[in-house]
Queue: 3 jobs
Job 1
Amino acid sequence: MSKKWSISVPGSTANLGPGFDSIGLALGLYLKLDVQIADSWSFNHHSVHLPEVIEVEEHLVYTVAKQVAERYEVTLPACQVDMYSELPLARGLGSSASAIVAAIELVNVVCDLQLTEQDKCNLSSEIEGHPDNATASVCGGLTIGATLPDGELHILNEKKLDAAFAVFIPNVELKTAEARKALPDSYEKGYAVHASSYGNLLTASLLKHDYATAGKFMEADLFHEPFRAKLIPNYELIRTLTKDYGAFGTSISGAGPTVISLVDRSKVDELVTKMKPHLPDYDIKAVSIDDAGIQVTVTE
């Protein structure tokens, strides 16, 4: 049996405007775990995006791994885990979802569970609470997910998207729970119908690779962005300037505070260069779409 593995999981953006809690897209920013069997559990963090103080019993990867092992009634051996992350915490780039997906994969490889992709989507969505970020990290590419009343999760996965994104990451955190408090408890029927139709058009245009139309509907959301905009630094400024510089559309990434723009791949670097002087305190970068999802390499 192998005793060392390298696990790579892409981060993600969710919603893309009106695809609230159902649309996810894997990004070329990664969480990596080097895992080996050990005498006792330990976590070593090798990134400024990961906490310096580590309590094993409270670590998200550890708690999720234990939960999964109990679900499948297997004995999870102690592991030494070295973690590397390109995903800032609480910025709307799927840092928690990627950790959940990585923890599931850790148990899968260490205990030889032989989980299917659907199994991983089911588990990660259940633990995360919705299928957007989690399924994108599992599958790669664009995922559109929904759970039927009987609990069955359905995922549509499209990998061949010829576009790129610019991400605007401020130096402030925004917890998902705080962002959810900004949302109304209910929506009037007519309002909800319009909001849902915008999500339908966003989905259809992405699948047809009609990015100009997708950009329009990214900016037409009624479900969450009108209520969260006040929590997002420079929200209107970024939307206005990116449009001037050629972006198809701009929306909040997940719950924020990161903002993300859909851009033609040939123009994304130029857009990033033009935006940096306007937001000197931001981490602004061009990001590709990850098509691979989880990747595991046996190192011993």
Note: The chain has two domains: 4-158+290-298, 164-287.
Job 2
Amino acid sequence: MKFLLIILSLSLLPQLAFAESLKLMSYNIRCGFCEAEGTPQYWPERKFLLAHLIQTQQPDLIGLQEAELFQVHDLVAMLPQYLWFGEGRDDGKAKGESTAVLYRKDKLQLLSAKTLWLSETPEKISKGWDANLNRTFTKTQFKALKSGQSFYFFNTHFDHMGQQAQLQSALLLKAEVETLPENGKVLLTGDFNVEPSSEPYKALSKSLNDSALVAAQKLSQNAGTFNGFGRDPTSPSQTIDFIFVSKNLQVSSYQVDNRRYNGLYPSDHEALVAVVELN
């Protein structure tokens, strides 16, 4: 009996050795040229707050929204543990906002990455349906260096006005997820500009789980994700940012990091953080 228990214990060692958690962040950092010089919201002033928040959370993987590439350069200069991929939505290179992805170079290896447009022609620089602006999603595949496990990571930013574009964008992402291998592990972060009662959210929820709902430990209760820099204290914060995961993944914890620095906001959105079990 004792010999049998030893054999059973040894058989569990590979599983334990390859168990791996991934700390994931979604963060709309507010575009760099959108706030007036001389205000606390001006990027050169608040970039240090953003970098501090990221540094204290130490996520392994970050999906940024509204990130102009000079902002990404600023952040990575302060956070040298990260590598990144991102392309501007207006020219597929450096012009315009991006859905950039940052990742810990000591934890993850980037296997593939591309920018696609939320439109009828995703491979081309384009504006889709009734959208007000060009909108993109970043599609990547990573390998976790510790366990060797691979997974897919999508990061996106839906249009803020076009309702048809919001729904069609959700359906496009859902279709992209469904083309992946059946047992593939999928993560999706983004500013979706829709609330949980919306049709786009419901469409995505057919293929993926909202980490805020399935997390074993919910560190934030009823916490909204859009704060508008607190400019309208009478308006409640909206929940329009989400971290979705495929149904074969477990979420250990979910948090909305809504810290302030002496009353100052790092962004007009809060940072979302989820710990996902890759095993």
Note: The first helix runs from residue 2 to 18.
Job 3
Amino acid sequence: MLMTGVRQTTDINYKYWSPAEVMPHSELKKLQFERLLEQINYLWKKSPFYRSKWENSGFYPGKLKTLEDIRYIPLLVKEEIRVSQEKNPPYGMMQVPGSGPFIRVGMTSGTTGKPVLIPLTEEDYFGVFCEGHVRVVWAAGVRKGDIVHVAFGFTPFLGLAAAYDSCEHLIGSLVVPGGAWNSLMRLSMIEKLGVTVLMGTPSYILHLASVAQEHDIDPRSLGIRVICTAGEPGAMSAPNTGLRLEKAWGSKVYDYCGTQETNCIAWTCEEGAAHLNEDLLYYEVLDPETNEPVKPGQPGKLVVTDLVQKTHPCIRFETGDIVNGIETDTGCSCGRTLRKFKGFKGRVGDIIKIRGVCVSVTGIENVIRGIEECSNNYEYHALKDKNGMDKIKVRIEPQKSIDSSLWNDVRQKVAESLYIAFMINMDVEVLPPGTLPVFNLKAKRFRDLR
């Protein structure tokens, strides 16, 4: 059975939402293997998609003797999901035959191509998907007495929706919707309703603070106690982004990440460590070239296997993310035994190798967000120079308070900081404040113009 911590209670005397958070890691690995075996046997019997895919690769359930034997299962890429939905609309392989009825349909953002539809039963949504997300807000200290505002447009995007539903239905907090509100209306209602918890993408919540300041409102005066960010790299991957948020709002910042196809991958605890939902998902970090496991703690591409939910389990799903690795140490001063995630380098297509150096959006963001003269907005381009060699151009905006006569000084400071971080020269272009786009959900900061 699923070891959930699902409960609707006013009790605030327990620290951990789920007993899995403090399970001895040796027992957790046994649980992972039991769930993996159950999942594979279930799909072998129920899913024509997986049965055919696995038989063609030479895999069958009997090959699973240990967790490490997962390597015998072929990888799943998002394009296979898209093709299956084109051939068998609307859900394709994302619906195991016989599963349903559905209470929620999710949809990916389309960052890497045509969006994928994700159907969810009540058990899979509240019992599994929200179980992965409620740990985020519980660890952040969100309780029944909080007033929560989730600052995003109400679309089928599941990540922030699951946090919304976790606060409302599982914890019992008052959750304030505002999908069509502009930033000024949000700020007005945050103040009027006494919102204590704010959720959204790091980019948008930083933008919201800027709008407040432009209208002579100090964001720190609004009483936001906790900020939870998701949807793009935040504090766990770009620490300077977290510091900017804390400084702007005077709030404690928590970050989480995941995929809509699987679940919440990792979330930060009160000590700032990012913990993995290891009872719900199995994680692999593979060499992007060979698909072999990297050494423990080393960077590579993240592959995730859904251990629990039964509508659309993704087995060895290539997330498309390059990560910094997973720590082998299972100890944390918060008391949790779930292993710690070291954050993202970036999407596979967003990482450019220049003279042997990998340049990623999170690395660039961390540099820019650490320079106080820079605004929150930036983007970077991959280009060819006159000799046909790859190069990077970074476009920034200075803070509005910086006189234009000092913009070149800002440009030089950014260029020098990028060189120190990456040991390569990058072109830096300074644009007038307000030139670059502002994003409410996932920010698109990379353009490949080669």
Note: Confidence is low (pLDDT under 50) at residues 1-12.
